[in-house]
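Dear colleague,

Following up on Tuesday's group meeting, I ran the structure prediction for the two-component complex that the binding team flagged. I've pasted the input sequences exactly as they went in, so you can double-check that nothing got truncated or mislabelled along the way. The structure tokens for the whole assembly follow below. Feel free to forward this to whoever is handling the docking comparison.

Inputs:
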Amino acid sequence: MTDPVAARGAADMTEADARAAERARVPLKQKAPLLLALVLLWMMLWGSVTPLTVLTGLVVALIVTQALYLPPVVLSGRFNAWWMLVFLARFLGDLVVASFEVAWLAVRPRGVPRSAVIRVDLTTRSDFVLTGTALAVSLVPGSVVLEVDRPNSVLYVHALGVDSAERVERTRAHVLDYERRLLRAIGSREEWEAVR
Amino acid sequence: MIDAAPVAGILDIVAGVLLIGGALLSLAAAIGLLRFPDALSRLHAATKPQILGLVLVVLALALSLRSWTSLLLLIPVVVLQMLTAPISAHMVGRAGYRTGDFDAATLVADELADDVADAGRSDLPGASEPPRGTP
């Protein structure tokens, strides 16, 4: 694959080499959840569970994961199903409330809303938690992640309907709260201890 | 399949209410797209209220079809939408911000601009792009 944006420097080349080496080392155990999810999706799309769909699903999943290679997702090894449910319930609640808030901002007679770009310093160093937080924040209406500073775990969030410094702080606290809840569900023990 | 007529009737009514709710949210999204001032605000309308709208419509479908095969088809619809919508929103937002396609006067705070100024832009991927409109 070529990168049309910019000629890649030597640093990127070594990174690519490192990635290729990493690829060879990914154990099957780490790939298993993704393979399983892809096979499940395949069976859902066919709407049937037969030996044929399982087998073809497995073949397609293997081809997809090999041909369209992504960096391995490093999990913390900790998963608390109860707090994950709490996180999802809270997220769904926010989704419903915020959807109507943004809908109201759109149709209210009194002018258009103001917004802000807010810097949020997350505590996690895990790509998975960073991605999960960004995903949840972006799905809840009224906020979207504009930029991600991955080495420093910083999210820049554009928030709609923010009209005062107080609302800025509230939005920042909201994003940090999401990170905290996600760490409680899937974060490593040390990171969860750090934010609790 | 449920044969009891009253239950089916109630489920159909619930499905109808959910369908209308989903449609109204999508309508609000369309109105927001027209009324919001700039690209960054508009992308909220373009990507958000209709996620719940879609969820409601899919729920309505599940309630009125009442079959496992359709339910299994509807779950990936919602899951894939939830996985892809934030990414498209992020790409539009990122591009919109970098090209200066937003109205800085509507921003209460822009902490990204502060950090970009601090960093001198030189080590950022957007360094070679023309500078965005000054706030």
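Residues 1-11 of chain A have pLDDT under 50 and may be disordered.

Cheers,
M.
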